[in-house]
Design brief:
CATH superfamily: Lipoprotein localisation LolA/LolB/LppX
Function: Plays a critical role in the incorporation of lipoproteins in the outer membrane after they are released by the LolA protein.
CATH topology: outer membrane lipoprotein receptor (LolB), chain A
Membrane topology: Lipid-anchor
Number of domains: 1
Helix content: 10-25%
Order of helices and strands: HHEEEEEEHHEEEEE
Largest sheet: 11 strands, antiparallel
CATH class: Mainly Beta
Strand order of the largest sheet: 6-5-4-3-2-1-11-10-9-8-7
Subunit structure: Monomer.
Main location: membrane
GO cellular component, one term: cell outer membrane
Length: about 220
């Protein structure tokens, strides 16, 4: 990564320690019931193409990285992602849809390209599998390629392997509705790593609807 929003010292140290000494996960292939519950999760989320998440993100390679707070909004095929750096408050905004992507906040004028992932690679030096990450952050495999999902003691996804990336779900938000959602996500493919901590999930389409009595994995014990 040649450039971009650099890590603040405390967060850089936190990410370094997490990368050097991660807590081992207990991984299992998953029972038939767990795989069926995961399939139900996918069906529920497929009916909710509009969602929002906010929290903190760290992106790094073997040399440097960037980090900050993020606000991520999805509306079907459209992405609106804003990252704000700690301390300085410097931010950039990525907006992407079927017609292309634009990145604003780094230069006097927005920079646009057809491919959002390529735009981030060119302007920030960030190697992000953006299309796949949109599924991974929801706790699901991305469509279109082979994957392997493993589960934790609580029956929720713990590790996903896809396209050379290893994605680990280290904690889940059991209070999220309509179902449990990933809270801490770590994705790695040497030398790249992405760490997402989601502080809040929002599904606007459910705002005016009463909560259901139960949902897929909603009552499963979560990892904290």
């Amino acid at each position: 990564m040649r450039r971009g929003l650099r890590l603040s010292a405390p967060l850089a140290l936190l990410l370094l320690l997490a990368a050097c000494a991660p807590t081992p996960l207990v991984l299992r292939p998953g029972t038939g019931a767990e795989r069926a519950a995961q399939a139900q999760r996918a069906q529920v989320l497929a009916q909710l193409p509009v969602w929002q998440a906010s929290g903190r993100i760290g992106v790094a390679d073997a040399q440097q990285g960037g980090s900050g707070g993020f606000d991520w909004a999805e509306d079907g095929e459209s992405i609106d992602f804003t990252l704000t750096a700690p301390i300085t408050g410097r931010s950039f905004r990525l907006q992407s849809g079927p017609d292309g992507a634009c990145l604003s906040g780094l230069k006097p004028q927005p920079v646009c390209a057809f491919d959002a992932a390529g735009l981030l690679r060119t302007e920030l030096g960030w190697e992000l599998p953006l299309r796949e990450l949109r599924a991974w952050v929801l706790g699901m495999a991305a469509p279109g390629s082979a994957s392997r999902m493993q589960y934790g003691r609580d029956g929720l996804p713990a590790q996903l392997q896809q396209d050379g990336w290893v994605i680990q779900y280290r904690s889940w938000d059991r209070q999220a509705r309509p179902l449990a959602m990933p809270r801490l996500i770590e994705a790695q493919r040497a030398p790249y790593s992405v760490r997402l901590y989601v502080e809040q999930w929002r599904f606007p389409e459910l705002a005016a609807k009463p909560a259901t009595a139960s949902s897929a994995h909603g009552d499963a014990p979560g990892r904290r």
